[in-house]
Amino acid sequence: MSDYNTYELIAEETDQGERLDVFLASNIDDFSRSYIQKLIEKGSVEINGSLVKSKKYKVKLNDGVIIHIPEPEKLKIDAEDIPLEIVYEDEDVIVVNKQKGMVVHPAVGNHTGTMVNALLFHCKNLSSINGVIRPGIVHRIDKDTSGLIVAAKNDRSHVFLADQFKVHSIKRVYHAITYGNIINDQGTINKPIGRHPTNRLKMAVTDMNSKEAITHYRVIERYGNYTHIQARLETGRTHQIRVHMAYIHHPLLGDMVYGPKKPKYKIEGQILHAKVLGFIHPSNETYMEFDSDLPCHFAEALRKVKG
């Protein structure tokens, strides 16, 4: 099946008794459960060498599950002359300090104005591992999160960096402003994160179809009803800092998904900045670390909460 991506999974002890669609959706992040259900019904899933078309099949220990996912429709992503704050660049990698409001890569209904469009204009080459929609993209940060992100210029560098993300050896330190006065000077939130059970656009702390998520935080300064914190990711789940801080009742200022729907000071979008990024370079295998200043919108939010 040359026009398909194939995923091969082995059911572990903790997977026993899960429905097939749930098992696949929890192990393949990029596709919704409803989409996976359609693929099952179309005969795109094999278990131990046999086609299975029932989404209700109960997974057994050591089941070998193979799913064939069609390649996405080829879309032409245009290079666009969009300014980028480039922190570092060589023939293998490029580190960008992304501004708040910029989407990292194109998606359905949003094919222009992204960091990828800008990278295609700036770089002659980007890795092809993630296809035409996400060339060079090894990791992502949310649209309204600012800060450091690394992209790969070739497939070898992409694999090398992706392996570091997989074993959680990448250093990622964020700064954020939270609601409320965090009492402890520092702490660790070790709670699994998965898709929200009723709202597919949100993530949640849950034991259902979730993955390990660990966030270490430290208070930088308190401002009465707000706290400036540093958060270090040990894992990298979708919306991890936003979900974990909301879980301990200190959602991020401006986060209208996990915090108040009408934030004070009319701040829209979470005040969260990826300040430090460290990784081992794919060619010389030396450790590199980058630090970025807090952006203007973050400094302005600090000024407001101090006031």
Determine the number of helices (DSSP H or I, runs of at least 4 residues): 6
Q: So what's the overall shape?
A: globular
CATH level 1 name of the largest domain: Alpha Beta
Low-pLDDT stretches are none
By CATH, the topology of the largest domain is: Pseudouridine synthase
Name of the CATH superfamily of the largest domain: Pseudouridine synthase
Percent in strands: 25-35%
Helix/strand/pairing class, anyone?
A: alpha+beta
Give descriptors for this structure.
307 residues, 3 domains, Structural Genomics Hypothetical 15.5 Kd Protein In mrcA-pckA Intergenic Region, Chain A, four-stranded antiparallel sheet, Pseudouridine synthase, single chain
Descriptive notes:
Helix 1 crosses helix 2 (33-41). This protein has 307 residues and is of the alpha+beta class. Helix content is 18%, strand content 29%. It is globular and about 65 Å long. The strands form 3 sheets. Strands 5, 6, 7, 8, 9, 13, 14, 15 and 16 form a 9-stranded mixed beta sheet that branches. Strands 1-4-2-3 form a 4-stranded antiparallel beta sheet, with no helix packed on it.
Short description:
The protein has six helices and 16 strands.
Topology, please?
Blueprint: E1 4-10, H1 20-27, H2 33-41, E2 45-47, E3 50-51, E4 64-70, E5 86-89, E6 93-98, H3 115-122, E7 146-152, H4 155-166, E8 171-179, E9 186-190, E10 193-195, E11 203-205, E12 210-211, E13 214-222, E14 226-233, H5 240-247, E15 272-280, E16 287-291, H6 296-306
Parallel strand pairs: 7-15
Antiparallel strand pairs: 1-4, 2-3, 2-4, 5-6, 6-7, 8-14, 8-15, 9-13, 10-11, 10-12, 13-14, 15-16
Helix pairs in contact: 1-2
